[in-house]
Design a protein that fits this description.
Layout (H helix, E strand, L loop, with lengths): L8 H6 L10 H4 L12 H10 L7 H4 L7 H9 L3 H9 L5 H7 L21 H15 L14 E5 L3 H12 L3 E5 L8 H4 L8 H14 L2 E3 L10 H6 L5 E4 L5 E2 L12 E3 H9 L20 E5 L3 H12 L4 E5 L11 H9 L3 E3 L2 E8 L5 E14 L5 E5 L5 E4 L2 E4 L3 E2 L3 H4 L26 E3 L2 H4 L4 H20 L4 H4 L4
Parallel strand pairs: 1-2, 1-4, 2-3, 4-16, 6-14, 7-8, 7-14, 8-9
Antiparallel strand pairs: 5-15, 10-11, 11-12, 11-13
Helix pairs in contact: 3-5, 3-8, 5-6, 6-8, 7-8, 9-18, 13-14
Length: 486
């Protein structure tokens, strides 16, 4: 490192947090270009200068993948961006992705000491800065790869948990092959997150980086149908399997009228838009019911619902309205996404819930009968429970309704692996620390175990799995004892 931050602590704390430039809302609401534009080098230096180099950095403790943030920021301050990127990749296989979609405000930045009196260091923006710098330079800082162990691991699913696990295992010298059911790699990173938040080229680059490290990939393989877990181990000879299939089975509201044409799950709507390139119409055929000039309602308050309503707006919706049964204070979506949505002209109907969808005699959606809600005492989620207000029903016009109220576990692998234990909701039962399942040599992590969560939490599960798999493959282990409680 060529330079150390010698600016007095009090002076560092006076520096105002930099703001990442954004595409103008009036322009971006009509296209799918990335909203956040990245920090200029001068702003990255300013932001790195703000770090007070804590003796016990809370940012590291609150990072699900344990990135050595203090060291990374020091390298950025010294101007050694490639070294900073290489240091980041020691713990994070997908820095250009997490720098864009990770909820840093609740994790690393939430642990920043500066946040107690002012704004925390913009760690996520710095992470994106060095990852983008590395990509543009063409000089990838690949971590060292250990000598081959002769062991092989099959990873089921190429989403964040699977890719993170693959990145760690390949460094430890194991042969790693990732199986993906769809025709493109990336899982939820490509089919769930819109282009304006995470360009597909970024995902492709990160996957290619793993491929350069030695990770093998195979698409169009539906594990549980094309091949079973048992066949991967018994016939194809894999020494261990990590199941990272996510939780992609959509949930609906269970109200009258969900059968009308024009009602989608958010998963289907986003997959058709992102993976099947509806956002590039007319270059690609539009595989969804046309939103242009129509009234669109999205039901839900999480990031998926926010992605769907902002996508509908960009696809030309006349009105794009988010309907959420609680208040904005209870919304699980990131504050940044809510802010961007408002800037883009999204309408919000808070404390509102649909009770019936309406349609015409030909089966096409025409509207949603809604009811106003009020908040009672907190429920199991810790948020105040919404209850209907008597006599408050009203109708919102709608040609398209997108349901974004959550997902659950796809049962395919569980149903074709008889000795794999599940919980009452059909998620795979796995130890939260080791990701071990009831089946010897089989590990599971991410949304297929916990239910829907964030990209970075799934990556954290992937790292835990990699550590546990490495221990299992390189030591005698005590599998039966350690999994007896599952």
């Amino acid at each position: 490192m060529s330079e150390k931050n010698t600016l007095p602590l009090k002076e560092r704390m006076k520096i105002v947090r930099t703001h990442m430039p954004e595409l103008d809302p009036e322009i971006r609401s009509r296209n799918f270009e990335e909203v956040n534009l990245g920090l200029p080098p001068a702003d990255a230096l300013t932001e790195a200068t703000r770090c007070i180099a804590c003796a016990k950095p809370g940012c590291v403790m609150q990072c699900p993948v344990g990135v050595k943030i203090k060291e990374v920021v020091a390298l950025i301050y010294a101007g050694d961006y490639l070294a900073a990127a290489a240091k980041m990749r020691e713990d994070n296989a997908l820095p250009a992705i997490t720098g864009r979609v990770c909820p840093q405000e609740n994790q690393c930045e939430g642990g920043c000491v500066l946040g107690r009196k002012s704004a925390p260091v913009a760690i996520g923006n710095l992470e994106r800065f060095i990852a983008d710098y590395e990509r543009r330079s063409g000089k990838l800082g690949l971590p060292a790869i250990a000598p081959s162990t002769g062991k092989s691991v099959a990873i089921v699913g190429s989403g964040p948990a699977g890719l993170s696990c693959a990145g760690d295992l390949i460094q430890k010298g194991h042969r790693v092959r990732v199986f993906e059911a769809l025709h493109e790699l990336g899982g939820v990173l490509v089919y769930g997150i819109p282009e304006f938040r995470l360009p597909k080229s970024i995902v492709k680059t990160e996957v290619d980086n793993l491929r350069r490290m030695g990770v093998e990939f195979e698409t169009n393989v539906v594990v549980g149908k094309s091949v079973t877990i048992d066949e991967l181990m018994r016939i194809e000879g894999y020494d261990a399997v990590f199941i990272a299939t996510g939780a992609g089975l959509p949930q609906f509201l269970g109200i009258p009228g969900e059968h009308f044409n024009g009602v989608y799950s958010a998963n289907e709507f986003l997959t058709r838009t992102n993976l099947m390139r509806a956002y590039q119409f007319p270059e690609f055929d539009e595989p969804i019911y046309d939103c242009r000039g129509r009234d669109v309602i999205v039901v839900g308050g999480g990031n998926t619902a926010m992605d769907a309503v902002r996508t509908a707006r960009r696809l030309g919706a006349r009105t794009a309205t988010l309907v959420y049964r609680r208040s904005e204070a209870e919304m699980p979506a990131r504050a940044e996404e809510v802010k961007h949505a408002r800037q883009e002209g999204i309408e919000f109907q808070m404390l509102t819930a649909p009770v019936e969808f309406l349609g015409d005699e030909k089966g096409w959606l025409t509207g949603a009968r809604c009811v106003r809600m009020e908040l009672a005492e907190a429920d199991a989620s810790g948020r105040r429970r919404p209850i209907p207000v008597a006599g408050s029903e009203f109708i919102l016009p709608a040609n398209v309704v997108i349901i974004g109220v959550g997902t659950t576990a796809n049962p395919l692998i569980q149903s074709t692996t008889p000795d794999l234990k599940t919980n009452s909701h059909n998620y795979i039962a796995a130890d939260p620390e080791t990701t071990r399942t009831s089946k010897r040599g089989v590990f599971a992590g991410g949304d297929i175990v916990t239910g829907s969560a964030t990209v970075i939490l799934a990556m954290g599960a992937g790292r835990k799995a990699a550590a546990a798999i490495h221990e299992y493959l390189t030591s005698d282990g005590r599998w039966e004892l350690e999994t007896s409680g599952l």
